[in-house]
Amino acid sequence: MLPATPQTDSEATPPKRWHQRPGVRVAAVLLVVVLFLGWKAGTFDRALVNVGLNAKACARNGFGATFCGKELEERQAEQRQAQRESEAAEHKASEEEAALKRQDEAAQHKASEELAAMTRKGEEAQVELQRQSEQAQRESNEELADLKRQGEAAEAKLQRESEEGPAVE
Q: 84 or 63, which is more confident?
């Protein structure tokens, strides 16, 4: 047998396991700190949003895309801008439609006034034509009466002359 050799303190202690070493502990703490800072910055939000551990606000659009943090704010700002533009375009279209409606109503009113004026003129022309026709009928009747009187006078003169006999010259 071999003689027993005296053991030193370093040899008497068992070897340290990996989790008992100070360098590993520091590395683990640094890893946890780095992971926490990454989580706090929102680096892992997209991966953690499904389990609700995201650090910043996240939203999913209709196509399934997830937006978090600043990107979400930018998308929301774009949507608000698009909504404002859409509302402005709708407002402009409704104003243009109202203007066209007013123009149409004004044109219809003008056309109805013109039709009424033309109807009045037509009625006035018809009354004037009727008056002229009646005047022409009276004048014609008067001329006919004059001609009839002249004819009667000429007939009476002829009859007197025929009764008196041939005229001596």
A: 84
Helix, strand, or coil here: 60? strand
Helix (H) or strand (E) holding 15: none
Partners of 58 in beta bridges: 68
Decide the pairing of beta strands 66-68 and 58-60: antiparallel
Domain boundaries, the chain: 18-56, 60-153
- Candidates 76, 70, 37; CA nearest to 56 is 70
Predicted TM-score (pTM) of the model is 0.45
Q: How much of the chain, in percent, has pLDDT values that exceed 70?
A: 85
Contacts of 26 (CB under 8 A, 6+ apart): none
Whole-number Å distance between alpha carbons of 66 and 45: 9
